[in-house]
Design a protein that fits this description.
3 helices, Rossmann fold, four-stranded parallel sheet, 14% strand, 35% helix, alpha/beta
């Protein structure tokens, strides 16, 4: 059975779904990747879906989930992706590994539609860089 990596954020609408999609694409053959939030928004942000489609990753079937859905699941690694220090990043008890890689929340971007898309792309690209490096490390460690 593949180890489970749970990516947590507050709203589970943007950053955690970007990270879930990227990590699943890069290392889904090695780990079971899930995402959830402490206060789920109840939807996956349409611009998150759009900017992931731009890089060939489809997250349109994802849904916003509460972290409590995973309380009975054996979680090997928890990764939090909340960016701002004043945001309440959830803690998950009992995991073996825990990482915190904070990213700005593109859902708070303002300006024109193109300005907002630029912010989603910027955050997606930052997440892609970090999670592809993590996936490469997993590939090495799980050989």
């Amino acid at each position: 059975m593949k180890p489970t990596v749970l990516i947590l954020c507050t709203g589970n609408s943007c950053r955690s779904h970007l990270a879930e999609g990227i990590l699943h694409h890069a290392a889904g053959h090695l780990v079971n990747v899930q995402s959830a939030g402490s206060k789920p928004a109840g939807y996956v942000h349409p611009k998150a879906i759009q900017v992931m489609q731009e890089i060939g990753i489809d997250i349109s079937a994802h849904r916003s989930k509460h972290m409590d859905e995973f309380l009975q699941t054996k979680i090997d690694t928890v990764i939090t992706v909340c960016g701002n220090a004043d945001q309440a990043c959830p803690m998950f008890p009992g995991q073996v590994h825990r990482y915190h890689w904070g990213f700005d929340d593109p859902a708070h971007a303002t300006g024109t539609d193109e300005d907002i898309l630029k912010e989603f792309r910027r955050v997606r690209d930052e997440i892609k860089l970090v999670f592809e490096a993590y996936a490469a490390g997993l590939s090495f460690a799980l050989r």
